[in-house]
């Protein structure tokens, strides 16, 4: 059965809508609304759980955006904006490529689950991670500043650091680099997120051209065994609103 969506959309700069879902109800109608490039990408994913999640998440994104635009989901144009570090669109952030529409979005997937943030007129980034076995030490070296590593290893919950603190730190960083648009090109060690402090936190980072950018980052309640964060520009006072989409 096709899922008919008439989504409420953010009506002002002060609202971010959050949609959480899983791959439980993936069907042929989901694949049908994807673009050829999205279908190819899903087919290339080696893990079938992740591939189903990719399909359901992107189908939901298209239905939600299409519902607002009054456009069939398969006709919604999603492109890439310029990378803020090098200007190339090849690896820039995904954007809605519809003239005159100021909706912005950020989509995150982890295992069988996804999280989508939709805003209006401002950048935003979300990240979702299921707590899982991770080589914390190796990831810490690549992604955490010296101060963050020290704070994590001495978090006091468990000798050598605990997964909760690690994933809180990680999701905050990912949310910021996705809001910024730099994604994998960003040096995560330069994005300090005060993981030892409860959110929301203010996070500043260099932009490669001498300027500093500031974000307000909050941890999101997405259920036990998961962590999620939302980053929005520090000068936009945002109230997130959460809907559950396709429960199961
Ligand atoms: Zn780049
Ligand atoms: Zn801890």
TrEMBL record:
| An annotated Gene Ontology molecular function | transferase activity
UniProt superkingdom: Bacteria
SUPFAM superfamilies found in the cross-reference section:
4'-phosphopantetheinyl transferase
A Pfam family of the record is ACPS
The 4'-phosphopantetheinyl transferase domain covers 124-204
User: Is Calcium among the key words of this record?
Assistant: no
**InterPro entries xrefs:** 4-PPantetheinyl_Trfase_dom, 4-PPantetheinyl_Trfase_dom_sf, P-Pant_transferase_sf
Keyword annotations of the record: Transferase
Matching PANTHER family: L-AMINOADIPATE-SEMIALDEHYDE DEHYDROGENASE-PHOSPHOPANTETHEINYL TRANSFERASE, PHOSPHOPANTETHEINE TRANSFERASE
Which protein family is named in the record? Belongs to the P-Pant transferase superfamily. Gsp/Sfp/HetI/AcpT family.
For this entry, the protein name equals 4'-phosphopantetheinyl transferase superfamily protein
């Amino acid at each position: 059965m096709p899922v008919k969506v008439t989504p409420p959309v953010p009506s002002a700069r002060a609202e971010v809508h959050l949609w959480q879902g899983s791959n439980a109800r993936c069907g042929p109608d989901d694949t049908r609304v994807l673009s050829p490039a999205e279908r190819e990408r899903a087919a290339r994913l080696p893990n079938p759980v992740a591939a189903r999640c990719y399909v359901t998440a992107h189908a939901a994104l298209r239905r939600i955006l299409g519902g607002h635009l009054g456009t069939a989901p398969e006709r919604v144009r999603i492109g890439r904006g310029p990378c803020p570090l090098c200007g190339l669109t090849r690896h820039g952030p995904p954007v809605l490529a519809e003239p005159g529409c100021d909706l912005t979005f950020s989509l995150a997937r982890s295992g069988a689950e996804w999280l989508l943030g939709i805003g209006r007129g401002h950048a935003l980034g979300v990240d979702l991670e299921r707590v899982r076995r991770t080589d914390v030490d190796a990831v810490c070296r690549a992604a955490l500043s010296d101060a963050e590593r020290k704070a994590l290893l001495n978090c006091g919950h468990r000798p050598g650091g605990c997964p909760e603190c690690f994933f809180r730190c990680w999701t905050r960083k990912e949310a910021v680099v996705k809001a910024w648009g730099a994604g994998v090109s960003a040096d995560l060690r330069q994005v300090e997120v005060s993981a030892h402090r409860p959110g929301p936190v203010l996070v500043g980072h260099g932009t490669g051209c001498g300027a500093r950018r500031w974000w307000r980052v909050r941890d999101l309640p997405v259920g036990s065994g998961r962590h999620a964060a939302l980053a929005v520009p520090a000068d936009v006072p945002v109230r997130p609103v959460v809907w559950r989409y396709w429960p199961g």
